[in-house]
Design brief:
The protein has about 625 residues and is mainly β. The protein has nine helices and 29 strands. The structure holds MU-OXO-diiron and calcium ion (CA) (3 copies).
């Protein structure tokens, strides 16, 4: 997660204070009332064990809760590192020496803090599950455990040298690596011509309604149609035409200068810009100083479309998908051929969005997807007490989105997506991260990771707990029927609360999972998710270390007698979040990003882990892990 929304250091004291507070039953009662209004599934409960014949469809022996310096996976499974920060992506580079890393070298090595993963089969168009491209977001750098004596604060940031800042700029963005499965192990094809790094310097096009707008023009790009690089690449998605969507999740702390000196201080403030220049970029490059280039911030926080099969292709920022702290861009091809993208805006009290294309995609003609994401309707979700959710269109000229109210045209509606959604009365959420559609049922899931800022007076039908330190999962039910019959373009869906995360044994958490949830199975802070080919959910968590447990991967049934019953499959090393879970088409490999191991350390000297190499004095390295059954069978089948 970006630093500007990271936990405050005192979160453990908040938890302790909550645990000791009297009168919590009152809050719990209010929660139950709101839950009932939302049509909460009756079989859920919180608290004591209930005897129930709930056989999970997930056929693995649950991992026992474990939290230490390395990663762990359920018995009968392997979890091997496939590619880690610094691994070579070109021939002849040699082994990685972090102390000798430089911008030129980093631009040809795997990036830092891996997040979203797409597995794109090779050859293109096939469903091969033993050969493909791993397309991986590299969100940001954790300089406190990359370099000696650079604590994770403004002091540490001020000590970054120009060479380090330039190297860090090449360590973020996106990494595309060719991989092959041989003898049960995934290996990188080091000299593949398809290997590619996309960084903060890679030229990319700007398309859609905001392209060319005066607020998008800079001295580098007087036309407002070309931008250097991408930043805070977090969640993502895959399109039916074989491209990857990479989400820019909040550039606010990477710019310096005085926001008040820009022509649009209110807009930048609504996006969290504070001139903090946390990564030192403005110190060495005027384009990150808003007083010199006031429009440069407007060129981030979009969804970037990348064609991984063509290493010479120019990535495109698709402005029709809105401007926000994009976490997810999950694509569904609707039954009528329209392309639907679900998106979360990961910040406190932000919203859940949906884009529906004007055009229709023809699977027989992949070129029909080429610019289909440039025109369509972006909507924001309003969750109603009666269990329905309305998609409110962000269309210039409709309702309050007029010039008199500060939205001169559709480009401004998109540049000010959050302000437009405010004006429409969207439902503020507990930090929406990933969204994903169950390929079997057609139901859509939105993960609220947590919201420590939630207070009793701000609760709503779908965000039901004050000081929500645990997060929850919302289920959206499109009309029209199951699976492919679901209408993802409808104006109104149903909704339900799928699970409320937390420890079911601690009443004050107010957790609600399936009654048969074990000591190992409950989770907190759901962040990313994916589905296996059978429609079982796999959740990745980010924030469990605050509760003294590891972040990890949990399998969860969404239908049948074990609906809402989580099982622990994988545990991360200390300090790391799990991210980007992604199956191969055959369901036999589950790739997982282990992001920011040891990030909780004061400095590198006191690293809490040096995963995965464990060299004396060495640096920890974020890495992608492949989880497989040792007998080669389908995961959890
Ligand atoms: Fe990058 Fe919202 O996590
Ligand atoms: Ca997160
Ligand atoms: Ca995330
Ligand atoms: Ca996902």
């Amino acid at each position: 997660m970006p630093r500007h929304i990271s936990n405050s250091p005192d979160i453990r004291s908040i938890i302790a204070a909550r645990a000791s507070r009297r009168g919590f039953l009152l809050g719990s009662g209010a929660t139950l009332g709101a839950v009932a209004a939302g049509g909460f599934v009756g079989s859920f409960f919180s608290g004591e064990a209930v005897a129930l014949d709930a056989r999970s469809s997930l056929a693995f022996t649950e991992l026992k809760r474990i939290y230490d310096a390395t990663h762990h996976v359920a018995e009968g499974y392997s979890a091997d590192v496939v590619v880690a920060w610094g691994d070579p992506m070109a021939a002849g580079l040699g082994a990685f020496d972090p102390a000798a890393n430089d911008p030129e070298g980093q631009a040809r090595r795997f990036g830092y803090n891996c997040d979203y993963i797409a597995f794109m089969p090779l050859p293109k168009g096939s469903a091969n599950s033993d050969h493909g491209l791993l397309c991986v977001n590299n969100e940001y750098v954790s300089f406190n455990v990359m370099y000696p004596d650079r604590p994770d604060d403004d002091q540490g940031a001020s000590r970054l040298t120009e060479a380090e800042i330039r190297t860090n700029n090449m360590a973020i963005g996106h990494s595309i690596v060719e991989v092959r499965l041989e003898d049960g192990r995934w290996r990188v094809v080091e000299d593949s011509p398809l290997n590619r790094r996309i960084t903060l310097e890679t030229p990319m096009a700007i398309s859609g309604p905001a392209a060319g707008h005066p607020w998008m023009r800079t001295s580098y790009d007087p036309e407002g149609r070309m931008v250097r690089g991408t930043n805070y690449n977090c969640g993502g998605g895959v399109t039916p035409w074989g491209t990857v969507l990479s989400c820019e999740e909040g550039a606010s702390d990477t710019f310096g200068g005085d926001i008040a000196a820009t022509p649009f201080p209110d807009m930048l403030e609504r996006y969290g810009f504070d001139g903090s220049d946390y990564y030192g970029r403005a110190r060495i490059d005027g384009r990150f100083n808003v007083e010199k280039e006031p429009n440069e911030p407007n060129r981030f926080d979009w969804v970037v479309e990348i064609d991984p099969y063509d290493p010479t292709s120019t990535p495109v920022k698709r402005t029709a998908l809105g401007r926000m702290a994009h976490e997810a861009a999950t694509v569904v091809l609707n039954g009528d051929g329209r392309v639907v993208v679900y998106m979360g805006d990961d910040d406190y009290f932000e919203y859940v969005y949906r884009f529906v294309s004007d055009g229709r995609y023809d699977p027989a003609d992949p070129a029909s997807g080429r610019d289909i994401l440039d025109s369509g309707t972006l909507s924001v979700a309003r969750f109603n007490e009666d269990g329905t959710v309305d998609w409110l269109p962000l269309v210039h000229g409709q309702g309050p989105l007029t010039a008199e109210n500060g939205f001169a045209d559709q480009a401004e509606v998109l540049l000010k997506t959050r302000l437009a959604a405010d004006a429409l009365g969207a439902t503020p959420m507990d930090r929406p991260e990933d969204m994903e559609t169950n390929p079997v049922t057609g139901r859509v899931y939105a993960l609220m990771t947590k919201n420590k800022k939630m207070t009793a007076d701000k609760l709503n039908a779908v965000n039901t707990r004050p000081e929500n330190l645990w997060g929850h999962i919302v289920e959206l039910v499109p009309p029209g029927g199951e699976g492919a019959a679901a209408d993802h373009a409808a104006d109104r869906y149903g909704w339900d609360l799928f699970v409320l995360a937390g420890n079911p044994k601690v009443p004050e958490h107010g957790a609600r999972f399936h009654p048969a949830t074990s000591e190992n199975g409950w989770f907190v802070c759901p962040d990313n998710l994916t589905f296996d080919p059978r429609g079982r959910m796999f959740v990745a968590t980010d924030g469990a270390n605050d509760f003294g447990i590891a972040d990890g991967i949990y399998g969860v049934d969404t239908t049948g007698p074990a609906r809402g019953l989580p099982k622990l499959l994988f545990a991360c090393p200390i300090g790391a979040e799990a991210a980007g879970p992604c199956f191969t088409p055959d369901g036999r490999t589950l790739f997982v990003s282990v992001q920011h191991p040891a990030e909780d350390s004061a400095t590198l000297a006191e690293a809490t882990t040096r995963w995965p190499d464990f060299r004396e004095g060495g640096v920890p390295r974020p890495a992608v892990v492949a989880i497989r059954r040792i007998d080669g069978g389908e995961v959890a089948a």
